Structures are given as C-alpha cells and as structure tokens.
Amino acid sequence: MSAAAMDEPVELEPERTLLIVDDDRLFLQRLARAMESRGFVVSMAETVAEGLTSVQASPPAYAVVDMRLGDGNGLDVIAAIRARRPDSRAIVLTGYGNIATAVNAVKLGAVDYLAKPADADDIYTALTTPSGERVAPPENPMSADRVRWEHIQRVFEMCDRNVSETARRLNMHRRTLQRILAKRAPR
Hints:
Blueprint: H1 3-7, E1 17-21, H2 25-36, E2 41-45, H3 48-57, E3 62-66, E4 68-69, E5 72-73, H4 75-84, E6 89-94, H5 99-107, E7 110-115, H6 120-128, H7 144-158, H8 163-170, H9 174-182
Parallel strand pairs: 1-2, 1-3, 3-6, 6-7
Antiparallel strand pairs: 4-5
Helix pairs in contact: 3-4, 7-8, 8-9
C-alpha cells in the first residue's frame, strides 16, 4: 500500500452508526465498547436531552435506548429518531418491563424491547435481525434467580446502597435483603 493511500481518510459506513442512550454510565461504556468491537460507530448519551441533540446532529442507523432516564422517557428519543430517519432500527431497554410500555415502544418505532440486564450479544442480535424474522432464543439465558438478583442489585444501587430503603421499595424484610446481598450472584 502506498504512503498516499495510507494517508487517505477511511470512509466509515453510515449504516453502522449506533446511538446508545442510558443513564447507567458503566453499562453505557461497556455496551459501547462491545458494539464498537462488532463494527459499529458508537455515540453515547446519558440523558434524553443529550440523545435528542445527537439525533438532531446526525440521526443514527441503529439505537439502543433506556426507557427511564433521569430527565424523561427514552421513548422521546425513539420518536425523534424515527421522525428524522424512518429506516433506523432502535431497541428499548428497561428494568421495568410491562406489556403497555412494550406496545408503546413498538408503536413509536422500536424493533424490539429487552429487559435489563441485557447481554451485548442479545442487543446485537435484536439490532441486526432482519425485520419480520424471529430472534432465536438465547443459548444460555439467565436463570430466574439471576434475574431476581440483578433486579435487587439495581434497586439497591438506585437507593444509594441504603438497605432499609431498598427493602421498603422491594416490599421485602430488611434481614432477608441483607442475606441476599451477602451472597454471591447466582449463575
């Protein structure tokens, strides 16, 4: 390869742009790295406002958006993406899934709705599965015990690691919660 060819900028595929909007910074950064390793050009936002600004500047081909964000509802970002780029593929992530919000997310243009904690492989599959095809079930899904443990950990973090407040919000006895938190994560 000539030196001139090496100096030329590499053309990025606009079809591989991905916007990730999530207020959990660690999850956001881990998912961004995982998706970059799968060939996406990733931009990140932690709020609805940042997500909307990013969409206005450059509507992505793909998006992963958390439902509940500190400054509003992630569905506003989904709607803005679909308005600016109708061919985009967006999925919604949430720790608080229910049928009504799933239906609303799909009506606004989301192609899938995944419960947290979602694996990067599951997210990639949901984003890249052609429309109309069913996504294959995961090979090694999390056990019900693990999903419960993850939910408890998420609420615990949201309550600033306050055991009493977490127990109250989960409608659980404080000692029971302390025993669960003292154990290792189930597989």
